[in-house]
Amino acid sequence: MKTLLLKELRWNWRSFRYPAFLLVVLFFALLDPPMTKYTSEIITYFAEGLAIVMPDPTPEDAFVAYLSDVSQIGILVLIFVAMGSVSREKETGVTGWILSKPVSRWQYLAAKVIVLYLTIILGILGCSTLAYLYTTTLLGTFSLAGAAWATMSLIAFVLLFGTVVFTFSTILKSPLQAGGLTLTIFFLMGILNLFVAGTEAARLYPSTLISQLRPLVEGTTALPEIAEPLAVSLGLCALLLFLAGRRFARMEL
Q: Which three-class secondary structure state does DSSP give residue 212?
C-alpha cells in the first residue's frame, strides 16, 4: 500500500494535476482579502466625478469571498484535474499493468482516494488558515470558531464533488465522460438549490453547506444547523466509494 501511495503522489506531482488545484485555492486565499479591502478605492479611482457610496468592508466579507470562490471555481478545477484519476489509466493500460502485480483492486482505488482526500483536506485547511491570518491583518479580527466551521463545511462539499468525479472516472470509460457528468450534476445542484432553499428539504441538501457559509463565519448559525447536510454529504461520499469499488471489482480491464 505504501508503494501505491508513493506512486500516486509522484505521478500527481509530476503531472501537475493536484498541485494545480492547490494553487487555485492558494490564489483566492491571497487575492480575496486585499480585493475586499481595496475594491471601493479601486472603483472610486476609475469612477472620477461620481459619488460612490459603499459599505465598509468587514473581515467576514473577505473570508466568505474566499470560501465562495473555492466552492465554485475551485470545484470546477478539481473536476478537470481529477476526471482522469482512473479512466485515463484504464485507457493507457496502466491499470492493467499495476493490477498484474500483487495488488488488489480495492488497494488500487484506496491509494487514489487517500491522495485525493488528503489533497483536498490539507490544501483547504492550509489555505483557509492563511486566508484567516491575512484577513485579520488587513481588516481586523473575527470569529476563529466561525471560520473553522465554515471551512469544515467547504471541505465536506468539495469532498463530495471530488468523490463524484472519482466515482465516474472509475466506472466510465473516458475522462471526458466523467468530467462532463460531474459538471452536469454540479450545475443542476446549484439550480435545484434555488427551489430547495428555505424548505424543509434544505436540512438534508448538501448545497446548504455552501449557503450557510456566511452565517457560519458571522456566528449566526451553529454547528447543529449544518450537522444534517454535513452527515448527508459524507454519507454520500462513503456510498459512492463503495459502489465504485464494487463496480471496479467486477470490471474487465
A: coil
The number of residues in the chain equals 253
Could you tell me if 43 and 129 are in contact, meaning their C-beta atoms sit under 8 angstroms apart?
no
Task: Kindly state the DSSP code that residue 47 receives in the 8-state scheme.
Answer: S
Check: CB of residue 160 under 8 Å from CB of residue 115.
no
Convert the pLDDT of each residue in 211-220 to its tens digit. 889 899 987 7
What the block records as the C-alpha cell of 74 is: 475551485
Torsion on CA atoms 25, 30, 36, 42, rounded to nearest 10:
-120
- Asked if 197 and 211 touch (Cβ cutoff 8 Å), the reply is yes
**In which residue are the cell numbers 494545480 written?**
20
| CB-CB contact of 167 with 240 (8 Å) | yes
pTM, two decimal places: 0.91
pLDDT score recorded for residue 57: 79
DSSP 252: -
